[in-house]
């Protein structure tokens, strides 16, 4: 999808504003001789930006406004290095709330709803984004934050929450607890707004059926406002994103070349009006595709398909490149296997060969040994790698109140 005239104008404005600053990107663009963007060819010459840039510029090197204009900062978790710190102006905060309000409206959520917000508050962008959009919509916010499942269920019942906002991992945990305690008839939930991590069709169906609710995928990331730059609609045919605030292109993650609409690749985002920390051509590492054509819902916002994984989630074993989503897809083909699984990459101490360990949950009605053999055979057939598979009863693997870590590489520890 190429830039339209209005988007070109906004990108040109961002570049001209950035090169007047001493920010990391202002200096970089001046050194490269960038002075504007009048056509697609100009845009294509803009170098990609990355999380590595943001860590290099830590803490506030990407800030493009005076300190007096910054009203808030947010940050990534920093679990894989220095945290990324993003400054926001008052307009940035307002724009984010506007996009989030649109998300709720697309999901059919109104001012009459009661929205229980379970994502975390604080430096993380999630909780406060869900709340700001809720307040702009005029709905009742129930700002629970993560954890304390007992309290979550009490508030859900007593306050008659109609919408749950959560990571897919925590939505699964709540749905399982509601089923286990026989509380389904006591809750009033109608919709779930789920984000922060990719989730399988099996997990989606488990949550939907356990709670009896309509589910919506919400998209966003800390570097680009936070969650709320796009959401799926009632057609469940991709996520509408707000192209008056962000421009999205899909690239081949290896070559960096843009791919045509409909083809899968890495999502790259340009913020069109962000003030505090504008980012041009930011590589997200999220994998998806732009869905061509107009949605059957009639909305004009373009669409991203569901996130299938991350380009940096890839792991190599026996010379074969693999993604967690590929293992997940195989598990989804096997009768009785649940949505929860873990992958451990280990090394045989004697042979020094890599070993792929897969642990998956299954219903008690299936033969665990036969199920493990079938999964092993399917993985071998697809990848030429024979995994060690363990099947455990449903509910055995630890549940998370945030994101679930599904892959652990222990090879360097051996």
Automatic annotation (TrEMBL):
CDD domains: PaaK. Signal peptide: none annotated. Residues 64-270 form the AMP-dependent synthetase/ligase domain. Pathway: Aromatic compound metabolism; phenylacetate degradation. Residues 319-411 form the AMP-dependent ligase C-terminal domain. It comes from the Bacteria. GO terms for molecular function: nucleotide binding; phenylacetate-CoA ligase activity. One of its GO terms (biological process) is phenylacetate catabolic process. Its EC number is 6.2.1.30. It is an enzyme of class 6 (ligase). Keywords: Ligase, Nucleotide-binding, Phosphopantetheine, Phosphoprotein. It holds the Pfam family AMP-binding_C_2. InterPro entries: Adenylate-forming_Reductase (IPR051414), AMP-bd_C_sf (IPR045851), AMP-dep_Lig_C (IPR028154), AMP-dep_synth/lig_dom (IPR000873), ANL_N_sf (IPR042099), PA_CoA_ligase (IPR011880). Monomer. Belongs to the phenylacetyl-CoA ligase family. This is Phenylacetate-coenzyme A ligase. The lineage of its organism: Bacteria, Pseudomonadati, Pseudomonadota, Gammaproteobacteria, Aeromonadales.
């Amino acid at each position: 999808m190429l830039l339209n005239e209005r988007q070109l104008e906004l990108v040109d404005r961002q570049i001209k504003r950035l090169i007047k600053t001493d920010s990391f990107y202002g200096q970089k663009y001046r050194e490269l001789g960038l002075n504007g963007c009048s056509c697609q060819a100009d845009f294509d010459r803009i170098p990609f930006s990355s999380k590595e840039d943001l860590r290099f510029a830590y803490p506030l090197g990407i800030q493009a406004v005076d300190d007096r204009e910054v009203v808030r900062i947010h940050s990534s978790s920093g679990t894989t290095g220095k945290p990324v710190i993003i400054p926001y102006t008052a307009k940035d905060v307002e724009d984010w709330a506007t996009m989030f309000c649109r998300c709720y409206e697309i999901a059919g959520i109104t001012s009459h709803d009661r929205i229980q917000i379970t994502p975390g508050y604080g430096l993380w962008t999630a909780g406060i984004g869900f709340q700001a959009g809720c307040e702009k919509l005029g709905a009742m916010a129930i700002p629970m934050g993560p954890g304390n499942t007992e309290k979550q269920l009490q508030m859900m019942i007593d306050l008659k929450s109609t919408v749950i906002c959560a990571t897919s991992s925590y939505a699964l945990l709540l749905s399982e607890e509601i089923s286990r305690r026989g509380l389904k008839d006591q809750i009033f939930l109608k919709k779930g707004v789920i984000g922060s991590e990719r989730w399988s069709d099996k997990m989606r169906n488990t949550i939907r059926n356990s709670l009896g609710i309509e589910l919506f995928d919400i998209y966003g990331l800390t570097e680009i406002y936070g969650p709320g730059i796009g959401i799926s609609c009632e057609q469940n045919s991709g996520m509408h994103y707000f192209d008056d605030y962000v421009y999205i292109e899909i690239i081949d993650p290896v070559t960096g070349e843009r791919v045509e609409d409909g083809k899968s690749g890495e999502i790259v985002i340009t913020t069109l009006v962000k003030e505090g920390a504008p980012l041009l051509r930011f590589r997200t590492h999220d994998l998806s595709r732009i869905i061509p054509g107009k949605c059957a819902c009639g909305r004009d916002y373009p669409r991203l398909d569901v996130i299938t994984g991350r380009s940096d989630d890839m792991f190599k074993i026996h010379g074969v490149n693999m993604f967690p989503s590929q293992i997940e897809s195989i598990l989804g083909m096997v009768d009785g296997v649940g949505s929860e699984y873990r992958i451990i990459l280990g090394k045989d101490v004697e042979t020094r060969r890599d070993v792929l360990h897969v642990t998956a949950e299954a219903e008690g009605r299936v033969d665990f040994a036969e199920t493990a053999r079938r999964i092993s055979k399917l993985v071998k057939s697809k990848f030429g790698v024979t995994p060690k598979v363990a099947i455990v009863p449903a509910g055995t693997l630890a549940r998370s109140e945030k994101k679930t870590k599904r892959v652990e590489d222990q090879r360097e520890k051996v």
